[in-house]
Automatic annotation (TrEMBL):
Protein name per Swiss-Prot or TrEMBL: Fe/B12 periplasmic-binding domain-containing protein
Family as reported in the entry's similarity comment: Belongs to the bacterial solute-binding protein 8 family.
Protein's cellular compartments: Cell envelope
InterPro entries for the chain: ABC_transptr_periplasmic_BD, Bact_iron-sidero_bind
Amino acid sequence: MKKVIFIFISLIIILAGCGKQDSDKESDLKAFKQDDNTEIKIPKNPKRIVVLHPTYIGAFVKFRHTPVGVTNYVNQNKTLKEATKSSKVMNANDIEAITKLKPDFIITTKEDKNYKKIEKISPTIQIDAMKSNYKETTKKWHLLSMRTRKLKSGLKNGKERLKLTALN
């Protein structure tokens, strides 16, 4: 009888521990509002980001968050090439290469024809170039990479700094 009670209590403890892990995973996520007002769950502290649009690579580099994967466009820009030398340089259509990087999330444009494929790899943020402006997009990248001090020094307009402070 004591063995049955011991096994039963052990089973309850194990199941309770498994349930806690799931809730911990949920608390490690945050909602990110995309340009089309849909929300996507992404990690709070991302470490492995793939950036599939060349315009957005520079913002992450500026905030000292080098993406793990970038498009081969960086080879055309000496500054970006140097800043992303530790990143995997690939064709934006190379789904297999993106998968191998095991990203926390992926950043692409609304126009990306491979969106349906890459969203299966990892949460995928789509930025709509027609709705976003550079400063607003840069603020979003700040919120993802959490580099407030670096962003504030990068923004020249005091009003933009004030708005950013209000966001935090």
